User: What shape does this take?
Amino acid sequence: MKFNKDKFISAIQSCKSSLAEQLDSGNYWKERQAVKNTFLDVFKDCVSFESPEERNKILDYMRQFGVQEQIERDFSATRQVIDGNIVFLPAYENWSAGEMLAKLLTYRNSSKLSQKTVQSHRDFIYEVARQLFGDAEVQWVYKEPQECEYVIDRGYSLATFPIIGVAMAVVEATADLVKAERAKVQLEHSLSKSQESVNETSKLLADYMNQLQAV
Assistant: This one.
C-alpha cells in the first residue's frame, strides 16, 4: 500500500472551510466525530494498493481469519444504493485501499490469541503496509474504547502507522486552528463592543462632570 502525502496535504487545505461548518455545534463529542470523519474521508482517498494482487491477497487473508460476524459484515451481500440504484453487494466491493486497511486492523483482535498468532498478524499488516511505517520503530497502538462501536471493531488504531499518525495530528490541529480563529474573531468583536461602551460611558461621564461644575 502507498500513501500519497501531497494529495493528502492538498485535500486538507481545501476542506478547512467545510470543517469549520461542522465545528459550530457546541457539542464536544459531535465536533470530535466531525474531525474523525473528515480525516477518514481524506485519508481513504490518499491510500492506494501496490497492485490488484495485493488487494486480493488482503481479502483472502481476511476471509481466512475473520470471525463469523466480520465475514457476515464484510463479505455477505447487503442492500446498497450506488448512483441512485439499489444493488446487493458485499461491503468490500466498494472499499478503497484506506477503508480496507482500517478493516484489516480490526481482524484477529481477540485478547485470547497466542503471542505467536498476534505476531503473525502484525507481520502480515507490516508486509502489506510497510510503506506507511516508514523508517520509524513500530509501535502497535490500539483503538480507544470509545472508537469501537462493536466488539468486532476493536483492534489497532490507524495511528499505529507513523505517517498516518502525523496526518491525523494535522487534521486535529487544523480543527483546533479553525476553532481558535473563530474564538479570536468573537473576542475581537467583543473587544470592539466593549471599547464602544467605554467611549460612550466616558463621554457620558464627562457630560455629567461638566453639568456638575456648572451648577
In short: The CA atoms of residues 103 and 202 lie 65 Å apart. The chain has a mean pLDDT of 87. The chain has one domain: 2-65+98-214. The radius of gyration is 26 Å.
